[in-house]
Structure formats: structure tokens, C-alpha cells
């Protein structure tokens, strides 16, 4: 067997191992050192209907699109790169995956060890490049000896890692030249995609007693987890303060309170009277909720499915419990009255009615997001950008009988890779998609407009363009008047609609809520991608924010 053939069949074994862990989507960056991997993947895609190969020119964007697939499917997704700085471009997505304990796989080709550190082209030290942002990493040997046996050993390592410690994986694969076989080689193994068997669920050994009135706080959850939280709320006769990422925030339900920001800002004395707080899921979007928890005097439990510590207050009693057992892990100890719950529900209803009219008083980000929350079809996936977008959507969103499933990148909460992540959701689910981001987030990820051009389903990208970082107007940075605009706000004067049009995308600019409603509903009726740029005055947000009254007088 020639060295080129060894490279090819070693690549096939590596892909087999990843397929055995459930990987179906492979995101392939251009490059020659990764040629054996690329050749195997593209040829597998010709014969296997569940091998999906996606190609693109920007490794950072590819990795975030793969992250979107992981979020939407729950299965590993793989980014394939050549050697050198191409690998470093994967770091932001690996950081986000590590923060959320998601199985994003970086499959990076490399030069052989004898070419590292001697001035060879496109050769850097790649093992360990992602530092502690991976759950498992391995620098594989050059292909030598029985390839099937080596592939089986790799498969065992991957399976064990993904079961024991969820999170991103880095496989570094050196290949020596020649990289291209002289002729097309037959596939010797047809790998089967098999999701790792879930860890065996063990019924909680110790049931947690809930004393007195109970308040549930729902953090970032998927739909199945959210349903378990609702079951527990019914069992404990508890009320739920719902984060926008909990899949419960827009639910019309007598036990779900939609206005976490206002309740935790204005009703702390009432909230502090609850004897027990149970928090479920991942990170919380709104700062006032965390501030409430930091001073809460009662019994505070934080429950998650993983071992990851998500308690910035240092006050919670943390417990790892599978979501399927959440309704079984707690029982009411003694009698709990409903008086507190009724008071809190009444305050929530009053606040919601009071604010419904206030959201529409001025043309601003508040008004636009409140409007959109009532228009987005329930069958759409909804991806919310960071900074102002997700915070204001959480405050203003209408409650509905049916509403879209919400996604976001709230691991490291950065603005990079948002468009690519959103596109990955659609690649995995094949559903219509609405994406709402700010102007700086869109500018930061312009390369990912490439993914919008590939969209076959309806995809609506709404860019709230307030000409810079207006979130800083809420912060002490605004008092630094001599440097605020240059150092923080950073106005740019760039038209996102014009950029989208130049890239061949359907785009439209709007400057009023009536125009936004019309443009959005039209975009939802067409296949493919539409970019809607919402032009907003730079000071619209802060003027509206200062005029808001959180509670009825």
C-alpha cells in the first residue's frame, strides 16, 4: 500500500470512529493537508444519505455553523481544517461549546512532527492549541500498521469521552506527503452513524424536601427539560420565573411568570418571603435575577444535568440530576400556603398590563422586539443575538399559546459567529428560521452571509441597526463623555442591507414598526433568505429606557 493510500484509509477509519459517535454533519474548510479527510467525506456523502458535507471558506464561520448543528440536533458535528492558522480560527466556537458542554469536534490536519519547529511552511504546534477548552483531545500518529485496529481504539476513546465528560473534542491528524492517491480508491468500510448510548438514569437516592412556599427559576433549557420543569411546578404547586432561553418565557400558563426583570427589580421583598428557590438549567440572561439570587436568604438549590458549576453567587446547593428525574427528586415537606404565589402572580399580571402599552410608546428597539414577538410563526426556529437583543426580547416578548423554539449563544455570550450558528440550526432541523441580531454582531460575522445564500427554507435575518454599541449607554461608560463615542459606542454608518444586496441576497431597509411588520410578514412567505435592516436612531433605546416605569403607580 502506498503512503497516499495509507493516508486515505486512515482518514476513513477516523471518520468511521466519528460516525460511530453520531456525527452526521461535516464542515470542510479548503486546504491540501486535510485532503485525505476531504476526499473520504465527499465520497461517503455520495453513497450515504446521512452524511452531510458543508463547505466554506472561513474556518471560524464553519465552526460556528457546526455548533448550530450540535445545538439543534444534540449530536456531534465536525469541522475539518488544514494545518496552521486555520486551526486557530476554530477557538471562539470551541470556547462557546466548552461553556455549554457541547460535542463540537475539531478535526485538524497537521504536518508530521519532524516538520514542526524547523521553518516548514504552514506548520505550527497544534496539539493543545485549544488549552482547557476541550473535554478530550488526541494527537493521532501517522498511519502505520493495522489501520482498522487503530481506528477501533480511537472509537473506544471517543465513546468513553463523550459519555463521561460532555464537551468539545480536538483530534489532530498529521499526514505526510503524498496526500492524493493516483486513482480513485474504493471505500473499504461503510461507517454507520450511531449516537452514543445515554448514561443510565439512576433514580435520585435522596429526595430533596421542599419546605414552605417554592419559587422555581428556569434558566437555559431545551423543550424536553422545560416540560419536566412544568411537571415539577404542578407537583409542588410552585410558580416559575422563566428566562427567555428556558422555552417557557412566552408560554401562556398560570404558573409561568414572564417578567423576570421587573419582578426581580421591584419585588425583591416579596420574592424573599419564599422559603425555597429551585433553579434549573443553564445561564440566566437577566442581571436582576442573578442579583436577587445573590441576596436571597432562603434555601437555594441549583439543579443541572451536568457537573458544570453555574453558581456565580456561591450560595446554591448544587445537585446533578437527569432532567427525566426532576419531577421525582423533590417532595413537599409540610403544608405550603398559596398566598405568596397569588400575590406574586397578581403583581406579575399588573406589571405585564402596565408595560404592554409602554413598549409601544416610542419607535425603538423595545417597540420593534415587542412587535416581532407576536409575529414570529410558531413553526420557526428563533435565534436571538447577544447584547441588547436578547435582553430586550426577554423583557418585551408577548405570551402566546404557541411560540417559536428559542436558541442563543449564551455560553461566553460573545457577538462572534451568531449568523453562522443560526444557519447551523436550520441545516440540522430543516425548519424556517428567524434571526434577530444587532448591527455590530452582523458586521462581526459578515462572512457568514455566505450561509444565508445557501438557505433553501425561509430564513429571515433582522438586523437592528442603531449605529454602534448602544448597550454601553446603560453603563458607566456613558459618563466618560470625552471618549464614549470613539471607545465604546463606535458608530460606523454602514448599511447592512446594502452589503447583503451586494452579496446577492434579498434585502430591505425599514424605519418604522409598520414597515417592519409588513417586510417581515412578506419575508416569511418566500423561500430562501431575506435580510431586513431596521434603522433606529442612536439614542432611541436610551430615551425609551429612561421613560419606562417598571411597576404601576
Question: Could you explain how this protein is built, in words?
Answer:
It catalyses: isochorismate + 2-oxoglutarate + H(+) = 5-enolpyruvoyl-6-hydroxy-2-succinyl-cyclohex-3-ene-1-carboxylate + CO2. It is a single chain. This protein has 553 residues and is an alpha/beta fold. The chain folds into three domains: 3-174, Thiamin diphosphate (ThDP)-binding fold, Pyr/PP domains (Rossmann fold, 3-Layer(aba) Sandwich); 208-352, Rossmann fold, CATH 3.40.50; 359-547, Thiamin diphosphate (ThDP)-binding fold, Pyr/PP domains (Rossmann fold, 3-Layer(aba) Sandwich). The chain is built from 20 helices and 20 strands. The strands form four sheets. It has a six-stranded parallel β-sheet with strand order 2-1-3-4-6-5, with helices on both faces. Strands 10-9-8-11-12-13 form a six-stranded parallel β-sheet, sandwiched between helices. The longest helix is centred in the middle third of the chain and has 20 residues, at 339-358. It starts with a helix and ends in a 6-residue tail after the last helix.
Amino acid at each position: 500500500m502506498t503512503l497516499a493510500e495509507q493516508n486515505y484509509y486512515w482518514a476513513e477509519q477516523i471518520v468511521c470512529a466519528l460516525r460511530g459517535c453520531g456525527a452526521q454533519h461535516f464542515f470542510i474548510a479548503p486546504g491540501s493537508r486535510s485532503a485525505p479527510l476531504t476526499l473520504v467525506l465527499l465520497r461517503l456523502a455520495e453513497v450515504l444519505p446521512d452524511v452531510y458535507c458543508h463547505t466554506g471558506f472561513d474556518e471560524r464561520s464553519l465552526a460556528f455553523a457546526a455548533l448550530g448543528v450540535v445545538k439543534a440536533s444534540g449530536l456531534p458535528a465536525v469541522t475539518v481544517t488544514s494545518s496552521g492558522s486555520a486551526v486557530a480560527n476554530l477557538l471562539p466556537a470551541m470556547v462557546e461549546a466548552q461553556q455549554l458542554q457541547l460535542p463540537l469536534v475539531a478535526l485538524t490536519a497537521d504536518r508530521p512532527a519532524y516538520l514542526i519547529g524547523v521553518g516548514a511552511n504552514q506548520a505550527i504546534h497544534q496539539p493543545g492549541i485549544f488549552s482547557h477548552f476541550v473535554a478530550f483531545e488526541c494527537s493521532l500518529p501517522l498511519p502505520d500498521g493495522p489501520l482498522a485496529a487503530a481506528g477501533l481504539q480511537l472509537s473506544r476513546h471517543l465513546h468513553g469521552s463523550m459519555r463521561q465528560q460532555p464537551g468539545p473534542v480536538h483530534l489532530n491528524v498529521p499526514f505526510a506527503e503524498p496526500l492524493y492517491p493516483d486513482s480513485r480508491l474504493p471505500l473499504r468500510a461503510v461507517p454507520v452513524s450511531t449516537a452514543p448510548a445515554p448514561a443510565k438514569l439512576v433514580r435520585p437516592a435522596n429526595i430533596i424536601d421542599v419546605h414552605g412556599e417554592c419559587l422555581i427559576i428556569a434558566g437555559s433549557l431545551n423543550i424536553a427539560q422545560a416540560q419536566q420543569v412544568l411537571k415539577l411546578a404542578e407537583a409542588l404547586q410552585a410558580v416559575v420565573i422563566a428566562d427567555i432561553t428556558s422555552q417557557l418565557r412566552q408560554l401562556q400558563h398560570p404558573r409561568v411568570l414572564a417578567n423576570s426583570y421587573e419582578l426581580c427589580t421591584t419585588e425583591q421583598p416579596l420574592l424573599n418571603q419564599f422559603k425555597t428557590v429551585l433553579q434549573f438549567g443553564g445561564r440566566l440572561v437577566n442581571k436582576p435575577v442573578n442579583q436577587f439570587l445573590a441576596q436571597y436568604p432562603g434555601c437555594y438549590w441549583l439543579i443541572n444535568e451536568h457537573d458544570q458549576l453555574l453558581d456565580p453567587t456561591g450560595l446554591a446547593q448544587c445537585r446533578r440530576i437527569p432532567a427525566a428525574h426532576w419531577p421525582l427528586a423533590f417532595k413537599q415537606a409540610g403544608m405550603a400556603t398559596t398566598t405568596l404565589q397569588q400575590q406574586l402572580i397578581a403583581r406579575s399580571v399588573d406589571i405585564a398590563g402596565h408595560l404592554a402599552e409602554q413598549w409601544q410608546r416610542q419607535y425603538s428597539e423595545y417597540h420593534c422586539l415587542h412587535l416581532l414577538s407576536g409575529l414570529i410563526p410558531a413553526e420557526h426556529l428563533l435565534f436571538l443575538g447577544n447584547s441588547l437583543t436578547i435582553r430586550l426580547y426577554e423583557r418585551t416578548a408577548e405570551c402566546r399559546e404557541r411560540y417559536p423554539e428559542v436558541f442563543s449563544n449564551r455560553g461566553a455570550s460573545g457577538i462572534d459567529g451568531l449568523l453562522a450558528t443560526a444557519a447551523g440550526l436550520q441545516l440540522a432541523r430543516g425548519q424556517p428560521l428567524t434571526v434577530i441580531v444587532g448591527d455590530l454582531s452582523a458586521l462581526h460575522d459578515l462572512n457568514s452571509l455566505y450561509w444565508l445564500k445557501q438557505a433553501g427554507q425561509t430564513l429571515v435575518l433582522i438586523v437592528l441597526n442603531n449605529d454602534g454599541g448602544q448597550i454601553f449607554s446603560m453603563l458607566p461608560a456613558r459618563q466618560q463623555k470625552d471618549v464614549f463615542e470613539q471607545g465604546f459606542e463606535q458608530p460606523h454608518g454602514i448599511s447592512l442591507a446594502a452589503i447583503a444586496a451586494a452579496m446577492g441576497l434579498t434585502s430591505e431597509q425599514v424605519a418604522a414598526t409598520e414597515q417592519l411588520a409588513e417586510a417581515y410578514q412578506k419575508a416569511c412567505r418566500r423561500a430562501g433568505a431575506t435580510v431586513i435592516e431596521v434603522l433606529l436612531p442612536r439614542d432611541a433605546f436610551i430615551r425609551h429606557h429612561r421613560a419606562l416605569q417598571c411597576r404601576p403607580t
